[in-house]
């Protein structure tokens, strides 16, 4: 898998979680993205971050982080694409709904998906996935 630059891309939830846990490579990657094209995340990733909060302090940190990034909504077109991805890849590859929606958002916006979980997305032929670290 290729190495990420600071080019525009959609950052997957796994990288965001790594950054919250202080993984140096994740923090460095997000910093480079912020300096470059900016950090873009799917609303699905934002919801996954909220779902991972254990208390109000963690929720406040997530809210503060999300105010500093571009959160992309799931459009009607991306929803349809996600549905088609589910039809194509759920049975054969176990594609999950959140991953289908994140992939569809990246495809709709013409963004590379930055993720450490290539196996979640490798079956989608038109999606460019880059593991940044």
Summary, kept brief:
The chain has 133 residues and is mostly helical. It contains seven helices and five strands, in the order βααβααβααβαβ.
* CATH top level assignment: Alpha Beta
Kindly provide the radius of gyration, computed on alpha-carbon positions and rounded to a whole number of angstroms: 14 Å
Q: Which regions have little confidence, pLDDT < 50, spanning 5+ residues?
A: none
The oligomeric status of these chains comes to single chain
Largest sheet: 3 strands, parallel
Percent range for β-strand residues: 5-15%
**What share of residues is helical?**
55-70%
CATH homologous superfamily caption: 5'-nuclease
Strand order of the largest sheet: 1-4-5
Terminal CA distance? 10 Å
Beta-strand segment tally: 5
The outline comes out as: globular
Number of distinct helices: 7
Q: What is the ordering of alpha helices and beta strands? A: EHHEHHEHHEHE
Q: Tell me, rounded to a whole number, the average pLDDT.
A: 94
CATH level-two architecture: 3-Layer(aba) Sandwich
CATH topology: Rossmann fold
Structural class: mainly alpha
Number of structurally distinct domains: 1
